[in-house]
Structures are given as C-alpha cells and as structure tokens.
Amino acid sequence: MANNAVYIKSVQDGILPAEKEVLTKEQQLNEYIMTSLRTMEGLDLNYVGKEASDQLLSSAKKFVDRGSLLYENSKLKLTKEGKLLADGIAAGLFF
Fold it and tell me: What is the CA 74 to chain-centroid distance, rounded?
C-alpha cells in the first residue's frame, strides 16, 4: 500500500490491508537465485531441476572462472570477493 495515511486509517478501522503478489515460475526461480546466493548454504542446483541447473551452471562459469563463485557439491556459493558483487552475479544468473 503506497499511501501511509490510507494504511493507518485502515488499521484504525480494524482492516488489515494486504497485497498478494503472484509470481511466474521464472520469477520464482529468480527469487530463489537472489536469496539463496546470500546464504551460507548457497544455491542448491538439485532444488531447481535438471534444465535450470544446466543453464545456471553455464551462466555461472564466468563467475567461477573469475573467483566470484564456488561450485561444489551441486551448490553455487559466493566467495568472499563475490559477496561484494552479489547483485550483479545474481542478475547474471537470472532467467
């Protein structure tokens, strides 16, 4: 809800305003890429399926070669240097 005054009035009137966002499969995958890269566990390629995994590995190669990403145990993880470039790396992996 973009208008704070409307939001506050709704809450005062006992209405809890909410919005629902419905994501496509591609958007869901991109959200997973963005959020999982920021975790210690990294992006689990087993979670995304074979086709997406193959494409992610292909896209990730340049980041692995640069030392920004590690690929081990079917997971992609940001290196210390990669953490500084997390947004750009995620964008480079997006579908």
Answer: 17
Pick the more confident residue, 7 or 86: 86
CA–CA distance from 72 to each of 25, 26, 45 (Å)? Answer: 26, 24, 10
Contact, 94 vs 60, CB < 8 A?
A: no
Query: Which residue, among 36, 12, 15, has the nearest Cα to 94 in the 3D structure?
Result: 36
pLDDT in tens, 24-37: 999 999 999 999 99
| Bridge pairing between strands 43-44 and 69-72 | unpaired
- Provide CB contacts within 8 A for 18, sequence distance 6+: none
CATH value at residue 42: 1.10.10.920
Number of compact structural domains in the chain: 1
